[in-house]
Amino acid sequence: MRRVSYRLLVLVSAAVLLLDQLTKEIIIRNLELYEALPILPNFFHITHVRNQGAAFGILANHALRLPVLLGASLLAVVGICWYYRQFPPERSWLRWGLSLILGGAVGNMIDRLRFGAVIDFLDVHWYQYHWPAFNVADSAITIGVVLLLVDCWRPGHQGTAS
Question: Which of 72, 85, 106, 155 has its CA 20 to 30 A from that of 79?
């Protein structure tokens, strides 16, 4: 049986979690809810919002949203840790991706436990056309998914464990 090192998973996830929670704390302490700080007018603002649902506000008004989202987060954490150990260290794109996703999932899970909602603050828009606000955890998850896709598309790495 091959011994698996979780060093990368722990370090990257912890860095994402720390940066995510630190930026959210700065937002909470310095901006009122819905207050916006224009960085690039008509394109990018720092805006304090809270998302009670999942991505794009899905399930935001559902009575079971919190238990469902917390359960999904917990399942994701366990699944990522199990999946991570299935692949050798040479699969670095996959391992980095899973590490970023784990850190982001835990960051948003902490918000749901603390506030019942996720703190979002990165507000990208073109005049009145807004992309849903997001945060560091969401960014890490997105980059992690891109890295997983890159890994899958690499020759000889079509999702197979070694």
Answer: 155
